């Protein structure tokens, strides 16, 4: 049974965002890490990059496959989680904490309204 | 509709993730590829290999036919012995790689790749039709009659005799399963079934492959998991099977081998027996073997133009993957055919094809990963060696 935190917003493509003021922190859900298993590599975007909602901007690799990570919101990348690139298994062990990917300064905060609530995400993954 | 093996419901019960492999719905992993991989390296793992094909060839002319069909010398096989071998066309390129066993006298048993069963059988039948002594042998695709498991790892020898007790009753005669030596095959009684047990595998570890009826293999799977669990036995999927074989550089058809590649180019020339007489592809393979010894002749029409090398990543990078480009300086020189993060070594490893001049160990290469190039180095095969 996947863990879904009640204070986050979710994307259909299995990312979560945690909003604080105009900064959103992004990671992938417990369900996503369980599906990928054994994450061995994380590639993050450069700080300063402008991303559009729906744009592929990071990559996680399991032993078997590489998967794109999409930012569900637009804005500028302002911080990266360096520890997760050194220890990609954090995505498996702490998907909502130490396994976060990057922080983004929101340019279109209204996009947040299009994201899934915890309940809707739970429905999507058949929880 | 994907085909399912006799063990399909066992995989479902274990919560396996299932994928399409060569038209079969197969477990890619149960819990984690890394855990399953390390279980095989350190203790034991059990794989469903029922998707693989089986062909029997028997009769007075069977050995002569097989020596024409396959690259290795079948006459080296005494009853109860098997060998790795390849099936090539007239161009010397690979139709399939397989294991050929001599069960007794004139009876041979071939284990072929799941994805190649149809192509192999069409080819074998076409060769049989051209074979002068065809009335003296029978060739049968028996793939649908058999299921199979591989039990691999250093602890397997500690429990396999408790699962399949007693002496063999056919092929290699031994007092117990663990008396089989590498590449030997024996027929044993398991419960009231007959099963064939060979000391072979695709992981680089000691272990056994066991072929039998659907019912016998379903029982054997359950019994092995029960008896083997205290020894650390885990069910292992195709994901671990692929990382294990990549670490020890065993070729996989569709990656290192295909109909555009010869065994010499793939680095398995050891299994091409030029001195046994005529066989399919011999002329090309003889020329290629000779060209390896003299650099000038590599430029001849049938010289070796590419070689399969093993490499390790030396830069921190994402794992290499099949079809990534290989560079030397600014020049694109080849392509990755297998690549992964090595669970045993914890670094990116792979195999790829490059021109012969780049094939020597310690040659520096670059692998292009998502538009960026990362340093790698050619290493001697196997990439992983047991301490």
Report on the structure:
Chain A has one domain: RNA polymerase II/Efflux pump adaptor protein, barrel-sandwich hybrid domain (OB fold (Dihydrolipoamide Acetyltransferase, E2P)). Chain A contains four helices and nine strands. Chain A has helices at 30-36, 82-86, 90-93, 118-124; strands at 9-10, 15-20, 23-28, 39-43, 50-51, 55-62, 66-71, 75-80, 102-106. By secondary structure, chain B is of the alpha+beta class. Among the domains of chain B are: 8-49 and 146-236, Gyrase A, domain 2 (2-Layer Sandwich), CATH 3.30.1360.120; 53-143, Aminomethyltransferase beta-barrel domains (Alpha-Beta Plaits). Chain B has nine helices and 20 strands. Chain B has helices at 8-13, 33-42, 62-69, 117-130, 160-163, 214-228, 238-247, 263-266, 282-293; strands at 17-21, 24-29, 44-48, 53-58, 81-88, 94-104, 107-112, 138-141, 147-152, 170-171, 185-190, 193-198, 207-212, 233-235, 307-313, 325-328, 331-342, 347-354, 364-369, 372-379. A seven-stranded mixed β-sheet of chain B has the order 10-11-12-13-9-3-14, with helices on both faces. In chain B, strands 15-18-17-16-19-20 form a six-stranded antiparallel barrel. Chain B has a five-stranded antiparallel β-sheet with strand order 5-6-7-4-8, with helices on one face. In chain B, helix 2 (33-42) packs across helix 7. The termini of chain B are far apart. In chain B, 49% of the residues are buried. The model of chain B has no long low-confidence stretch (mean pLDDT 96). Classes of the chains: A alpha+beta (127), B alpha+beta (387). The interface between A and B is medium-sized, with 11 and 16 residues.
CATH architecture designation of one domain in chain B: 2-Layer Sandwich
Total helical elements of chain B: 9
CATH class of chain A: Mainly Beta
Distance between the first and last residues' Cα of chain B: 44 Å
The helix/strand order of chain A is: EEEHEEEEEHHEH
**Alpha-beta classification of chain A:** alpha+beta
Number of strands of chain B: 20
CATH architecture of chain A: Beta Barrel
